[in-house]
Amino acid sequence: MLVSLNWLKQYVDIKDLAPEDLAEKITRSGIEVDAVIDRSQGMTNVVVGYVVSKEKHPDADKLNICQVEVGEGDVRQIICGAPNVDQGQKVIVALPGARLPGGVKIKKAKMRGQESNGMICSLQELGIEGRVVPKAYADGIYVLPEDATPGSDALELIGLRDIVLELGLTPNRSDALSMLGVAYEVAAILSEEVKLPEIKYETSYEKADDYIQVRTDAPDLNPLYAAKVVKNVKIAESPLWLQNYLMAAGVRPHNNVVDITNYILMEYGQPLHAFDYDALNSKEIVVRLANEGEKIVTLDDQERTLKAHNLVITNGKEPVAIAGVMGGANSEVTESTTTVVIEAAYFDGLSVRRTSKELGLRSDASARFEKGVDPNRVLPAAERAAQLLAEIAGGEALEGTVMVDELDKTPARVVVSPDFINARLGMKISLEDMLSILNRLKFDVEAANGLLIIDAPTRRQDIKIEEDIVEEVARLYGYDEIPMTLPEGNETVGGLTPYQAKRRIVRSFVEGAGLLQAVTYSLTSEELSQKFALKVEETTKLLMPMSEERTTLRQSLIPHLVESASYNIARKADSVGLYEIGSVFLGQTDEGLPYEEEHLALILTGKWLDHSWQGEKRNVDFFVAKGIVEGLFDKLGLVDRVSFEKGAVDGLHPGQTAIIKLDGEKIGIIGGLHPAERKKVDLKETYVAELNLYAILQATTEALVYTPVPRFPMITRDIALELERTTPAGEIESIIRNAGTKLLKDVKVFDVYQGDKIEAGKKSVAFTLTYFDPERTLTDEDVSNAHDKVLKALAEAGAEVR
Question: What's the topology of domain 203-405?
Answer without folding.
Answer: Phenylalanyl-tRNA Synthetase; Chain B, domain 3 (3.50.40)
